[in-house]
């Protein structure tokens, strides 16, 4: 019985470590894609500029990185995302969604996000959730979660959960073929 308890404890520790190393839990119960289309939205970016789903138009693929200011793996991948954004072809782009923001009035979270972005040299657009995006985020269990959206707002595939820039690049290459 002692061995069983030790093995169970070790297994739980290993699973917890694996999950925490790949992403931070947002506290939501499920991670499922509930729609094939990204929801319509009218919000602002971290600079206060208006942003709608029109941000997807004209691009074959948009990498949508859902991240939180509380999440070490999210913050750690920011410099890599920043560097990649600078070398992307014209028909692809990266945008971020600051998932722990409560919207334009959440100045504390926005300030934290801007500091993280500035420290990482991020120049790509990062938006604050509105009601439509918020409903989508209700189905995101961990961050970073990265989805891929075409120019018409269609979600192209299953999300990548956890920081994995090489996987993001692989998928973008496939979508641009």
Write up what this structure looks like:
This protein has 5 helices and 9 strands; from the N terminus they run αββββαβαβαβββα. It has about 180 residues and is an alpha/beta fold. It has a single domain, classed as Glutaredoxin (3-Layer(aba) Sandwich). It has a 5-stranded mixed β-sheet. Helix 2 crosses helix 3 (about 105-120). The protein is globular, with a radius of gyration of 17 Å. Residues about 1-35 have low confidence and may be disordered.
Give the SSE map.
Layout: H1 2-22, E1 24-25, E2 42-44, E3 50-52, E4 61-67, H2 72-87, E5 92-98, H3 107-120, E6 126-127, H4 131-137, E7 142-143, E8 145-149, E9 160-161, H5 165-176
Parallel strand pairs: 4-5, 5-6
Antiparallel strand pairs: 1-7, 2-3, 4-8, 8-9
Features:
40% helix; 19% strand; 5 helices; 177 residues
**Strand fraction:** 15-25%
Determine the CATH superfamily: Glutaredoxin
Helicity range: 25-40%
Order of helices and strands: HEEEEHEHEHEEEH
CATH architecture grouping: 3-Layer(aba) Sandwich
Oligomer: single chain
Strand order of the largest sheet: 6-5-4-8-9
Question: From the helix content, strand content and strand pairing, which structural class follows?
Answer: alpha/beta
CATH class equals Alpha Beta
| Overall tally of domains | 1
Distance between the termini: 56 Å
Instruction: Specify the biggest β-sheet.
Output: 5 strands, mixed
Rounded mean pLDDT score? 85
Tell me the number of strands. 9
Helix count?
5
- The CATH topology name reads Glutaredoxin
């Amino acid at each position: 019985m002692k061995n069983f308890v030790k093995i169970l404890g070790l297994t739980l520790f290993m699973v917890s470590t694996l999950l925490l190393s790949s992403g931070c839990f947002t506290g939501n119960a499920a991670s499922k894609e509930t729609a094939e289309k990204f929801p319509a939205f009218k919000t602002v970016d971290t600079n206060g500029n208006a942003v709608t789903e029109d941000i997807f138009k004209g691009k074959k693929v948009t990498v949508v990185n859902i991240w939180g200011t509380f999440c070490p793996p999210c913050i750690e991948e920011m410099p890599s995302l920043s560097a990649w954004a600078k070398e992307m072809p014209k028909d692809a782009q990266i945008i971020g969604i600051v998932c722990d923001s409560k919207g334009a009035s959440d100045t504390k979270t926005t300030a934290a996000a801007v500091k993280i972005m500035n420290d990482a040299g991020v120049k790509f657009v990062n938006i604050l959730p509105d009601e439509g995006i918020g409903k989508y985020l209700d189905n995101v269990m961990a961050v970073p979660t990265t989805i891929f959206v075409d120019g018409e707002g269609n979600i192209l595939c299953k999300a990548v959960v956890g920081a994995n820039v090489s996987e993001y690049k692989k998928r973008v290459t496939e979508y641009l073929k």
